[in-house]
Every structure is written in structure tokens, then in C-alpha cells.
Amino acid sequence: MPPPADFVATFVCDPQAPILSEKLARRAQAALGAREARWLAPGLALDLFLPPERASGAEARAREALEGAPVDVVVQPAQGRRKKLFVADMDSTMIGQECIDELAAEAGLKDHVAAITERAMRGEIAFEGALRERVALLKGLPLAVVDRVLERAITLTSGGRALVRTMRRNGALTALASGGFTVFTRVVAQRIGFDLDVANRLEIDGDGRFAGSVAEPVFGADGKRATLLRLRAERGLGAQETLAVGDGANDLPMLQAAGLGVAFRGKPAVAAAAAARIEHADLAALLYAQGYAQDEIFED
Prior knowledge:
Blueprint: E1 7-13, H1 22-32, E2 36-41, E3 45-50, H2 58-66, E4 71-77, E5 85-88, H3 90-94, H4 99-106, H5 110-121, H6 127-136, H7 145-152, H8 160-169, E6 173-181, H9 182-192, E7 196-200, E8 202-204, E9 210-214, H10 221-235, E10 242-246, H11 252-257, E11 260-264, H12 268-273, E12 276-278, H13 285-288
Parallel strand pairs: 5-6, 5-10, 6-7, 10-11, 11-12
Antiparallel strand pairs: 1-3, 1-4, 2-3, 8-9
């Protein structure tokens, strides 16, 4: 068990390049005035426990001490770190792609659609209108392209299965909440191991082709936040017992409603506004942020 403390700073790096050395750890501990240190995974993840008077500005001091080393830092209250509800974005978070862009590739429109997607994810244009515009461009594509995209183009983000399966094994409810489409989320959720998924529904015409429209209302930022709040209420949980992760502007209300909201490879405005950000490590960093040690992580 970790020593008693009011705050904890978790340091974690890319598991393919475990550079978190004892020297870096000592430098960070000195910069933060941390009382205790605990390795969660040698070379990969470390907890430093801080008194309350050292918590303010701790992340900035830690990053300065790291001198540009590719290590992520999450500072949060030490109490209640292990979450009982996890809600995750799908595109560019739990998977490495944007599904609508990959569908557009089947129509020879990927560059055009991807440019709209990028603007929407950066918050430069409204998500709902951008989604309707992009879906209209898919009109006439056969539904069968979904299976082809899933097989050829979609890859799971490293650490995602371990994150979801470890949390479920420890009693948490896990949900995939996507501004994408149910034809993808139901497959991705099963591959990763989520309890449930929520997303938009593409309308299909009588010939088994995309109708160029999405069922209303569009599931976007408000829907993601509402999903987190609904599941939290159904489980009788407090805000601090929830975790959310995403990368785009339509994830931000959900991230801000969670006890710990994490921007994973987030767009600049999202990374700046989220409580925590992960730029270097994989999704298993969210387990280390909850205080799980390497030997507690369920990989299978």
C-alpha cells in the first residue's frame, strides 16, 4: 500500500522505451519535495507522494526537472485513485484511426473528409454539422465496406486491452462512447473488452447502402458527457470515482465531468484544458495513474 499522502504525481513513459531511470526519479523527487517514492514498474512508471503544500504547480516543476525527457506526469489527489467507471472515446484514442476517414477512403474522398474531421476535432467547426456533412459524402457506399475497413485499416491502440480488462477485473464498469458509428463500436468494444458501447447510427437504404444520413439526434459532446453522468448515477458513484479519456474537442465536456479526465494524444485545446494528458506512454498509463503496479495488470 502507498504511504499516506494528500497528492500523488505519477511518472510514466513509453513501454517500448523505458527511460525512467533512478537518476530521473531522484531529480523529480527533489524538485517536488516528495516524501515517498514507489516504483510501479521498473524504468516505466513511478509514484511520488506529496504533502498538500507541494501540490500546487507540481506538474510544471516535474516537467522542468525531466529536462525534456519523454515522460508523462499526472498529478492528482492520492485518495480515490482507483476508478469504478471508465468511459472512453474510440477514434484516435482506443483505436489509431478515424473510422469515417477510412470509410471515405473507400469512396476516394479520404483527404477531403479527413480535413473536415481534423477541424472538428480541434474544435474549429461544430461537430454535429461536420458529421452530417461527412456522412452525406458516403451516400451509396455498400454497408459491406465496414467489414473491409475493420479488417484492413483499424488497429487497437497499445495498452487499451490491458486498461479495460484490468479495470473490469477489479470491478469497474467500462463504456466506449463514440461520435462515430455503432457499426464500428460494437466490433471494437468486443475486441477490446468493454462492457458496453454507445455511438451514432448510420441510416441504410433498402439496397443495403449508406443513405447519406445519420439517425438523429447526433451523439456528440453532450451525449458523451450525458453517458458518463448516467452511468455514474446508475452505479451510485461520486464524480471522483470516474475516469474518461479522449483526444478531440467533442470529448472535452466528458473529460471535465470525470474525476480524472485524460487527453490522450489530444488536440492542443483539449490537452490544455484536460486535467491530465498522455503524450508519450500508451493507454496502460491510465492504470499506472490509478496506482496499479505492473504485476497487477491483466494483459490477456
